[in-house]
Specification:
Elements (H helix, E strand, L loop, with lengths): L1 H19 L3 H14 L4 H13 L3 H14 L4 H13 L3 H14 L4 H13 L3 H13 L4 H11 L10 H9 L5 H8 L4 H11 L4 E7 L7 H4 L3 E8 L2 H8 L6 E4 L2 H7 L4 E6 L10 H9 L1 E13 L5 E3 L5 E3 L1 H10 L2 E14 L2 E12 L7
Parallel strand pairs: 1-2, 1-4, 2-3, 4-5, 5-7
Antiparallel strand pairs: 5-9, 6-7, 8-9
Helix pairs in contact: 1-2, 2-3, 3-4, 3-5, 4-5, 5-6, 5-7, 6-7, 7-8, 8-9, 15-16
Length: about 375
C-alpha cells in the first residue's frame, strides 16, 4: 500500500512539472495515473480537474473539482477553479456562490475577488463588480489588468490598449473548440467575407500576412491567393491549432506591432479578422502596416462599430471603432478606402453585433516635387 502511495506521489509531482512547463497532455496522463493509485485524493482531483479545464474539457474538469470539494468544502483553490468553470459554462449565479465562499474563507487573495467581479459584471451588476475589482486591487492584484476591468464597468476614458497578459491568457484558454464556437454559436464568418471580396476581384498576392491569425480560420481561405502566407498571434495555444492546418509558410508567436516592426519583408496583403476588438487605439497599427506594405497592397479587417466616438471600450471588454475614425486613420497613413460594408461581425445571445468590414488599398508614397 505504501509503495502505491509513493508511486502516486511521484506521478503527481511529474504532473506538476509537466503542467508548469505547459505540457498539458502529459500532465493529464500523470495526474490520471496518480488518481488510479490514490483514488479520491483531493489534491489529485483538483489538479487533474484544472488540467482538463485548460484542455477545454469543462464538464469533466468541473466534475473532478466538485469531487474534491465534496471532501474538502473549504478548499479555496478548488472553489476558485470551480467558479471559473461554471462561469465559462454559462452558469454565472453558481459561479458567484463559489467565489463568494472563496473570498469569505480567504479575503486576502486577489484572484477570487477579480473573478467575482467578472461574474458580477456578467450578471449585470456593474457597481458590485467595480467594488470587487477594487478589493482585488487593494490586495495586490495586477493594477493594469484591474484598471482595464474597471474601465469596462464604469464610465470614463477607455485605456488605449488592453493589457497584453489579458489577451494572451484569454485566447490561450480558449484555443480548444474556438473555431466551432465562433462558427456555430456566434455565426461568425468574417474571414470568409474579407477573403471572398478579394478573390472576386481577382486578387493575387506575393506575400500575405494573417495578423492575429488565431487558430488559422482565414488560412485555408487566403492560401489560394498567396504565394507566401505568414500568420502571427499572441497566443501560443492558438498557434498550435493553426500549425496543424499546414497552410502557413511561417507562424510567429508575437505581438502584432513587435512583429511588424521587426519584419524584414514587405507584405502586399494584411488581413486582420476580428482582431482589433482586442487592440484598442489603432494609429500605431495603421502606421506599422503602412510601413511594411507595398504600394497597391490590401489591408482588410473588421471592427465592431461604435456610434459613441472613435474608440469605445464596451462592457464586454472589447473595443469598438467608428467609421469616421477608420476613415481618418486611413487618410493619415496613406490608405485609400476601396470598400467598407456595414454588417454583423457575430451574434451574441441571439443579437447581431454591428460591425464594419474594411478593405483599404495602400497608396503610392508621394515624392517631393
Amino acid at each position: 500500500m505504501d509503495s502505491e502511495l509513493e508511486r502516486a506521489r511521484a506521478l503527481f509531482l511529474d504532473g506538476v512539472g509537466h503542467y508548469q512547463a505547459g505540457r498539458l497532455r502529459q500532465a493529464e496522463q500523470a495526474f490520471a495515473a496518480a488518481l488510479v493509485l490514490a483514488p479520491g485524493r483531493p489534491s489529485v482531483l483538483t489538479n487533474l480537474g484544472v488540467v482538463r479545464l485548460k484542455l477545454g474539457r469543462l464538464p469533466e474538469g468541473l466534475a473532478l473539482l466538485q469531487q474534491a470539494l465534496a471532501q474538502e468544502p473549504d478548499n479555496t483553490e478548488a472553489l476558485g477553479h470551480c467558479g471559473t468553470a461554471l462561469a465559462d459554462l454559462g452558469r454565472p449565479a453558481e459561479a458567484l456562490a463559489h467565489f463568494d465562499r472563496a473570498v469569505a474563507l480567504d479575503p486576502s487573495a486577489p484572484a477570487p475577488w477579480m473573478f467575482r467581479g467578472n461574474v458580477l459584471k456578467e450578471l449585470g451588476r456593474p457597481q458590485e463588480a467595480a467594488a470587487s475589482f477594487r478589493e482585488a486591487l487593494a490586495r495586490g492584484g495586477d493594477p493594469q489588468l484591474l484598471a482595464y476591468y474597471l474601465a469596462g464597468v464604469e464610465a470614463g476614458e477607455a485605456p488605449a490598449q488592453p493589457p497584453r497578459v489579458y489577451v494572451e491568457a484569454l485566447f490561450d484558454g480558449y484555443a480548444t473548440g474556438f473555431d466551432q464556437h465562433l462558427q456555430q454559436a456566434l455565426r461568425y464568418d468574417a474571414p470568409q467575407v474579407l477573403v471572398q471580396r478579394m478573390a472576386a476581384a481577382g486578387a493575387r498576392f506575393r506575400n500575405a500576412l494573417d495578423l492575429g491569425c488565431g487558430t488559422g480560420m482565414a488560412g485555408p481561405l487566403l492560401r489560394p491567393l498567396a504565394e507566401r502566407l505568414t500568420g502571427v498571434d499572441l497566443s501560443a495555444n492558438m498557434l498550435d491549432q493553426a500549425r496543424a492546418l499546414a497552410v502557413y509558410d511561417a507562424l510567429e508567436h508575437a505581438d502584432a506591432l513587435e512583429f511588424l516592426a521587426a519584419a524584414p519583408q514587405a507584405f502586399d496583403c494584411v488581413l486582420a479578422a476580428d482582431v482589433f476588438i482586442y487592440v484598442g487605439e489603432l494609429s500605431q497599427v495603421f502606421r506599422a502596416v503602412a510601413a511594411r506594405m507595398s504600394p497597391g497592397g490590401v489591408f482588410a479587417f473588421t471592427v465592431e462599430e461604435s456610434t459613441r466616438g472613435e474608440l469605445e471600450l464596451r462592457s464586454t471588454l472589447r473595443y469598438a471603432h467608428s467609421e469616421a475614425g477608420i476613415r481618418r486613420l486611413a487618410q493619415e497613413h496613406g490608405f485609400r478606402v476601396a470598400a467598407m460594408e456595414r454588417r454583423p461581425v457575430r451574434e451574441e445571445q441571439r443579437q447581431a453585433i454591428p460591425g464594419l468590414f474594411c478593405w483599404l488599398e495602400r497608396e503610392p508614397a508621394t515624392r517631393p516635387s
